[in-house]
Specification:
This protein is of the alpha/beta class and 509 residues long. It is 38% helix and 21% strand. It binds nicotinamide-adenine-dinucleotide.
């Protein structure tokens, strides 16, 4: 049995990780670590035990002012402003090397702070972070402007060309579900394009970002290029979103907070990009292999405890194979090993917080009250040790006999709860799949090429996966239709989100 010590750290934790977690964590402003100007702190909790894990500085508006001033100074610093595109790429490569070298340490920090299985943290969170810095390291020397074949009046000879310039100070606000990699989604393109950043991690899960910030310094980025202000969203996040010295805000989080960020950004008309919530349809056609689909549907929803913006949370199975798929899926769901994230046997960890567990629990109750049937899960898993009695664990849960009138079908639950429905008519299926304020992603299982392309074209979502689910890559654009967001991250598409394009006219007459 694992013995937990002091601030909820397993006894098996390597000393460099335990020592890092046990520090009093400060804010990173202009290359210096310092306490919050108000002296206040916020506690980060280990979701497996419900016990305090670490103490973080709770930043204030004045700290955001200082961080923005530091970022602005960094933009004017020749050590950042005047370095060549290749040098910027080298810094990003150095950072990717450091993330890879510290992968085990970063994965364990992420797992203890967020609750996710350490294997997921290692492969997905840390793996994606390194890959993002590596991919965007190539762009500074390749993101070219154009020479434009214009047609001026009056026989003028004019050269017209475009250049891409950094936007300036980027405020990045990120959620708790993939803490470090969500930060990297913003940092990698922002730094590749020569911006300076004020980053606010989620208050529940700031530790991996703080360690990443140390590695950013070690990689050689000049002071002030990346500043990190931890603390509450209503204080630090709101101050960044409304700050007159921030030129762009890049937000990932809930649609409700995305609206607040957008309203706050109007003051100085800062550029806004948003990655928001989802309620993604996962669609199964009658020719699909029921066993393969059952496994994929389980992964699609239960991966990361269901706390994934792209979670395949609405399952639509053709009536011909519904019973077979659901029976296999429920067997799969019951086999998932739920436990503390640091245990290598764990496949699904606890939810991130007590409030998230409450929210998800009340959704399950609302579904049952509305007439849904509980096919599996819905409770705290049995057999967890006494040290995990206050952890935020929930069994993988499947609700059947659900309809589009129910809140569990219409709203994002953001937990390990799948709602399943039968379908027979393809046009009705497409209407149902699109009957959502969200449009982040969708999945589709069939070998019928014609139907696959027809349905993919009809779905209003930024990503459609056919015979796969939840794949992302730094090279492929990602983002939402409808209320799932504004703009695209990743790939070439994101570079426009982190640059201004200047059109230069030269009279050659
Ligand atoms: P959240 O909106 O509650 O918080 C996100 C961030 O915003 C946190 O750092 C928080 O402190 C901050 N914040 C809170 N109030 C703020 C305010 N008034 N002004 C500025 N910032 C504020 O979201 P969450 O609960 O951390 O994350 C879950 C949500 O994120 C889900 O809806 C999920 O779908 C979404 N998400 C979307 C994507 C995507 O790429 N589309 C990815 C991950 C998560």
């Amino acid at each position: 049995m694992t013995v937990l010590e002091g601030p909820s750290i397993p006894a098996t934790t390597p000393s460099e990780v335990a020592g890092f977690i046990a520090r009093d964590h400060g804010l990173l402003i202009a290359g210096q670590w310092r306490p919050s100007s108000g002296g206040r702190t916020v506690v980060s909790v280990n979701p497996a035990t419900g016990q305090p894990l670490a103490t973080l500085a709770a930043g204030e508006r004045a700290d955001v002012d200082d961080a923005v001033a530091a970022a602005r100074a960094a933009l004017a610093d020749p050590g950042w402003r005047d370095i060549s595109p290749l040098q910027r790429g080298e810094l990003l490569h150095a950072l990717a090397d450091l993330v890879e070298a510290h992968a085990d340490e970063l994965a364990l920090i992420e797992s203890l702070d967020n609750g996710k299985p350490v294997s997921v943290a290692r492969a997905v969170d840390v793996g994606t972070t390194a890959k993002l810095f590596r991919y965007f390291a190539g762009w500074p020397s390749k993101f070219e402007g154009s020479t434009i074949p214009i047609s001026p009046r009056g026989g003028l000879r004019v050269l017209n060309y475009t250049v891409h310039e950094p936007i300036g100070v980027v405020g990045a606000i990120v959620p708790w579900n993939f803490p470090m990699s969500m930060a990297a989604w913003k940092l990698a393109p922002a730094l590749a394009m020569g911006n300076a950043v004020v980053l606010k991690p989620a208050e529940q899960t700031s530790l991996s970002t703080l360690r990443l910030a140390e590695l950013i310094g070690q990689a050689g980025f000049p002071s002030g290029v990346v500043n990190v202000v931890t603390g509450l969203g209503s204080v630090v996040g709101a101050a960044i979103a409304g700050h007159g010295g921030v030129d762009k805000v890049a937000f990932t989080g809930s649609t409700a907070v995305g609206r607040l960020v957008t309203a706050a950004a109007l003051g100085n008309m800062k550029k806004v990009s948003l990655e928001l919530g989802g309620k993604s349809p996962h669609i199964v056609l009658p020719d699909a292999d029921p066993a393969a689909v059952a496994r994929a549907a389980c992964d699609g929803i239960f991966f990361n405890q269901g706390q994934t913006c792209t979670a395949g949370s609405r399952l639509y199975v053709h009536a011909d194979i519904y019973d077979e798929v659901m029976s296999a899926l429920i067997d799969e769901a019951r086999r998932i090993v739920v436990g503390p994230g640091h245990d290598p046997a764990t496949q699904m960890g606890p939810l991130v917080s007590a409030s998230q567990l409450d929210t998800v629990g009340s959704y399950i109750e609302s579904g049952l009250a509305d007439g849904a049937e509980l096919a599996c899960g819905g409770s705290r898993p049995a057999g967890l040790g006494a040290e995990y009695a206050d952890g935020y664990f929930l069994e993988p849960t499947v609700l059947t006999e659900t309809t589009h009138a129910m809140r569990v079908v219409r709203e994002e639950i953001f937990g390990p709860v799948l709602v399943a429905m039968r379908w027979t008519d393809v046009d009705d299926l497409i209407d149902k799949a699109n009957d959502s304020p969200y449009g982040l992603s969708a999945g589709l299982w069939t070998n019928d090429l014609t139907k696959a392309h027809r349905i993919a074209a009809a779905i209003k979502a930024g990503t459609v996966w056919i015979n796969c689910y939840n794949l992302t890559d730094p090279a492929s654009p990602f983002g939402g239709y409808k209320q799932s967001g504004w703009g695209r991250e990743m790939g070439r598409a994101v570079l426009d989100q982190y640059t201004e394009t200047k059109s230069v006219w030269v009279n050659l007459t």
